[in-house]
Design goal:
Length: about 140
């Protein structure tokens, strides 16, 4: 399981790093499909912390519009854990800490995420749900990254 956990951790950190460079405009704008959406299953759903469910076409459009709009945006991932290992899938949780988040209620935000990925590499993201962390957890967190 350690090998799978390490691979999942790398995947989660990497896709969030790439997303951060997308939002702050420091990545090639032609890389959206290859760097981000090639990792997602075409039927993937994303549920935002506000409870809005987005399909891949909706998520892709949101990304297109957001390129380079948030130059101070940074993401850091913590607490990656495998919750379930199924025959073909893995269920994971992690916390995502953001600073300079222009589209969040606070410029420093924190969320708990749960995701379903294929078990085999290269991973495909099937589902992602984010939930705001409690205010006292967010306030006590470190945003020095």
């Amino acid at each position: 399981m350690t090998t799978l956990l390490n691979a999942v951790r790398v995947e989660i950190v990497e896709i969030h790093y790439i997303s951060g460079t997308w939002f702050n405009g420091t990545i090639d704008p032609k890389s959206l499909g290859v760097q981000i959406f090639a990792r997602m299953d075409p039927s993937m759903t994303f549920i935002s912390p506000e409870g809005v469910s987005l399909s891949i076409p909706e998520l892709r459009e949101g990304f297109k519009q957001a390129f380079g709009t948030n130059t101070d945006f940074r993401i850091q991932i913590h607490d990656v854990e495998i919750q379930q290992i199924l025959d073909q899938h893995v269920v994971v949780t992690y916390t995502e800490w953001q600073r300079g988040a222009a589209n969040s209620p606070q410029s420093k935000s924190a969320r708990m995420s749960s995701a379903v990925l294929t078990r085999e590499q290269p991973f495909k993201w099937l589902h992602l749900q984010e939930t705001w962390l409690p205010e006292d957890t967010r306030v006590a967190g470190s945003f020095d990254f």
